Amino acid sequence: MSIFSVARLRRSVVQTPTIITITVGLLLGGYQLLTGALPMTIQLVFSGLLLLATGIPHGALDHLVERERALRLGESFSLPTFLVKYIATMGVYAVAWLLAPVPCLLVFLSVSAWHFGETDLQNAPNTPYWSLARLSAGGFVLAFILLTHATETTPILVRIVQADDLALLVWRSVVEQSGVVLRGWATLTLVLTVLAYAQRPIAIDGWRMVRLLVIIGLTFYLPLLPAFMLYFGGWHALSSFHLIQNYLPVTTKNATEAAWSVWQKSLPLTGVAFGVLGICAITWYYVSPDFDPLPILFILLSLITLPHIEVMHSVNKSQNTDYQQFETQNGTQNDFSQTSKHPVV
Fold first, then answer.
1. 43 occurs within a structural domain
2. What angle do CA 321, 209, 328 make, to 5 degrees?
3. Residue 345 belongs to some domain of the structure
4. In angstroms, rounded to a whole number, what is the distance separating the alpha carbons of residues 183 and 165?
5. CA 277 to chain centre
6. Domain contains 205
7. CA dist., res. 255 & res. 233, Å (int)
8. What element of type H or E holds 342?
């Protein structure tokens, strides 16, 4: 391979890192189809690497995002105050989980659906139709991954909702009609998107949407854990990094250097997060190895997600405002993504 070919390949990967996601997804899916099972070791290593590389780091930048938001609005920012508010939100939600697990699960799934849809359908204005389209799109991603892995999801759900009869009855009914539910949900999302576009057209990156659909499709051929991480770490977190790169001030126009700079800024809190997880894992292994940690891990994820979504909403809201200003000046036929400081994923 020539130097020019290597440079071109490197440039393509930097511009669209989700190509790596698709490649790895194809390799894992192909391995499973050929062998009949994906070893747990491979599942854990793959999920752990994505969690380390993108999953946790994209949330470890929340304090920088909030500081930038405050600077743009001319407000003061205090890191201790931000952390206290962040942790307090997690604490209140944790207490709520103890008192009412089923409502808290519904809240978590709803805000996650909005968060995923907000990231997947970028530049969409905050009109009623576009908001519904985003919520429906994010909800479909969650529903697709969970319902196509119902056998693995159900035992986890039983423990999370503490065997709540009504919740499990509803879940099993949905699972029995999963094909109808997913087809109907996909149709609803498409209809809402068409209506939203008819009312307020926006520039849509078709190639980006194709990559998203391919990644969602690949989750069907993987076990639940790597399936979720393929989307979450290999798509959602990378999309969030792109948003954050364009939101935070950078000192270079080089996409690779900018991405590396932003990722490095996430390392301190990423290290703290992995340290806490490591301590918990060691404690679990030596103190109570028979204890099932999955419900706790799921709830911990929800606790971190709630304040993170609030922070990331400010980034999306800012980008939408910038897009609407650009749209007013240049018309809807221009590709707003070209005005970003760094390539889309």
1. yes
2. 25
3. no
4. 27
5. 20
6. yes
7. 20
8. none
Domain-embedded: residue 212: yes
**Rg of the chain over all Cα atoms, to the nearest angstrom:** 21
Q: Where are the beta strands (DSSP E) in 168-230?
A: none
Q: Which domain holds residue 241?
A: 3-339
Cα–chain center distance at 153: 19
First vs last Cα of the chain: how many Å apart? 25
Give pLDDT tens digits along the chain (345 positions): 555 555 565 566 666 788 999 999 999 999 998 888 889 889 989 998 998 888 888 888 899 999 998 888 888 989 999 999 999 999 999 899 989 999 999 999 999 999 999 989 888 888 899 999 999 999 999 999 999 999 999 998 998 888 889 999 999 999 999 999 999 999 999 999 999 999 999 888 888 999 999 999 999 999 999 999 999 999 999 998 888 888 888 776 777 777 788 888 888 888 888 888 788 778 877 887 777 677 777 888 888 888 888 888 877 776 665 555 545 555 544 433 444 444 457
Helix (H, G, I), strand (E, B) or coil at 47: helix
Total domains in the fold of the chain: 1
| Helix or strand run (H / E) with residue 226 | helix 224-231
Please return the burial class of 109, using the count of CB atoms within 10 Å of its CB with bins 0-12, 13-18 and 19+: middle
Residues in the chain: 345
Helix (H) or strand (E) holding 74: none
Choose among 262, 233, 260, 232: nearest CA to 245: 262
232 Cβ partners below 8 Å, 6+ apart? 50, 55
With beta carbons less than 8 A apart as the criterion, state whether 288 and 281 touch.
Answer: no
Instruction: Using the structure block, give the residue that is written with the tokens 């062998």.
Output: 35
- Alpha carbons within 13 A on the beta-carbon side of 207: 9
Residues 6+ apart with CB under 8 A from 89: 306, 307, 310
Question: pTM value?
Answer: 0.86
